[in-house]
Amino acid sequence: MEIENKGMEVIPADKAKIKHIWMVTLYLFLITAAEFVVAFNLPASPIKTVIFIVMTIVKAYYIMSEFMHLGHETKGLKWSIIAPLAFVVWLIAALLIQGDAIFAAIYGG
Prior knowledge:
mainly alpha
């Protein structure tokens, strides 16, 4: 039996794009592995927290850029996502600082 091709054109896979996606996946895997190494080998400290935050931001960048296709959009669209995110991060930081101050005032911590 022969299969007929009714007006469909088969385009060969874009090997460069596929390789790029695999490289991003490898980067994400390596960053995650580094997070595990840091988690299990460094004692709890502010440096450890900063390392985790930086690694998380790098991973979020790669995920948003490649897998959510934001890296190929215009600057306006990128900033429409990044600017509100910056305000949310500021809000969380402000709430944590104020919450710590209120906790210290109430419980004498």
